Structures are given as structure tokens and as C-alpha cells.
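Hi F.,

I've been meaning to write this up properly since the lab meeting, where we talked about keeping a consistent format for the predictions we share between groups. The idea is simple: the sequence comes first, exactly as it goes in, then the C-alpha cells exactly as they come out, then a line or two of notes. No screenshots and no reformatting. I'm using this chain as the first example so we have something concrete to point to.
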Amino acid sequence: MRAMLLVNPKATTTNQRTRDVLIRALSATMNLTVEETGYRGHATQLSRKAHASGYDVLAVLGGDGTINEAVNGLLDPVDGKGGDEGSSADRPALLAIPGGSANVFVRALGLPNSPVEAVGAILEAIRDGRQRIVGLGQAIWDGQTRYFTFCSGLGYDAEVVRAVEGMRGTGRKATPARYVNTALHHYLSTDKRHPSMTVEGPEVPPTGGIYMAVVSNTSPWTYIGPRPVSPTPWASFETGLDLLGLQRLGLPSMLQLIPQIIGARDTLPTGRHLVQLHDEGEFTLSAERPVAFQLDGDYLGEVERITFRSIPNALRVLV
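Output, unedited:
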């Protein structure tokens, strides 16, 4: 089995010694080529190379951002313009090893959050021939297309991601505590009086007055340390996309919502100010003014209109 391993040397929770141990363990099972990522977008380029070179497996040691880049290279191996959903059998299988601060995708697959323990579970999967076929989300805006593994967001949550990325640019780590503290501080300055977004789709009647929208390809949406945060608990890799839209951001509404979404749960949050979609194939969010936008925890700028689509059975994962 030929495998290319992409290693993010700046991954939050690994060091060189840990990476060496993991590489030796994987090399004992497969014919392994190791590539280090050096800049934003590099994992996408390397995963396209792995696809074009006929590798059986693309392994990724890094956080959710690195995994997202690698997945986009696998789904669009030619020109970066999207549209190569095809069959999951036609592209390398993905082997995802947690190396970031949240590791939402890996944990949503049921793998341990420890990179060493995760590799142990993955080696068992390889030995037993286990794999899983998962769906992805696709976002289309301003002539661009990008796939996501677990979530997207517009509005307040993307503003928080933007603020944390700014801190990372100054050398500070993106820890769970930093996300929580940033969210609390940023809540005071976000616009809570002028909702700008409307959602609509082929099977979705127009609904406006939305301040913040969470689009999910699986659950949970994120983690606060060991605790999952699940605003869309019915979302899964085997169904279409889910959405939670907030039509109020005032303190009473947030205090009502937050206890309903923290922790493992299988019931939808309730409230008259919530817009909820489940298992949708396509919908569009449009805004009266530019709003912040993130995919898999990666801030991508501001948008005024974006279409989300579910791409079923898109990717084989060794798990």
C-alpha cells in the first residue's frame, strides 16, 4: 500500500519526537512518503500530487485546517475550480491523524484525540480492512468552490475565527480557552441589532432576519476541551447538510440556547428565534451586507451570497 503522509510541522499538539514515532509506526505497515507543509494551501497542492501519482492512501498529520486543504486537493485534483465529486473509489483513501487544537473532523469520526492513540486505531483499521465512506459539504461563492468536512459558518462565529487567526499570526496558539475567551469578548462588539441574512433553497422557503448561521456536515460543530458543542445534533456524514440560524443574538436568547447545545445530545435546540434545516441537498445564504465566513475553522473573508451543497459518498476514510 503506497501512502503519502502530509505533516504540518507547526501543528499545535505534536512535536518532532511524536512525529518520528508516528512515522515509524506507519512505515511498518505501508510504503510511506513523507512531505512537510510549508505554507497555506501547500497541503492542497501535495494532495493533488498524491492523487495524480496514484497513491492508495493520503495520510494527514495536522489540524482541521490542514485536513480541509488535503481533502480539497483530493476532490479537485486538477485546477482548483471544483466539480470533481466523482466516485470515492477513484481517489486515495484519507487517513487523518489529530494534530490541532480541536480536531473536530477526526473526533467526529470516532477516533481518539491523541495522535498516538489515533494511529493505533488506524493501524487496526488497516489490518482489518475497515473503511468508511463519508459525505462532504461544498460551498460556492464569488466564482470559487471549496469543500468542507464538518462545518461552515457566517456571522458571529466566523468573526471569532477571524479574531483568533489574527492572534495566531502574532505567535499565540489557538487553544480552546483562547476561542472561548475571544468569543466572550467579541460578543460585546458584534452587531446584535441589524440581522442581514436570508436562507432559501430548492426545498427551503425564504427565511430572513438571521444574524448568524451554522452549516453542518456532521455533529458536533466543535469542542470545548472534551465537551462537544452540538447546535445541529442530527447532522451526520451520511445525510445532507443541516443549518442553525439565529434570529436573535441578545443575552437572554443566548443564555437560553447555550445550555441546549453543550454536551452530547440527540435533541434539537428549541426557541422561536431559531431557523433549523436538516438533511438538505442545497440552500443559499444571502446577506444585505458583507458578513464574515469560515469553513472548517478557516476564515475565508467576507461574502454576500453563498450556496451550500451536500456531496454524498465523497471520500473513503480509514477508521
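Notes:
The radius of gyration is 19 Å.
The chain is about 30% helix and 35% strand.

If this format works for you, I'll send the rest the same way.

G.
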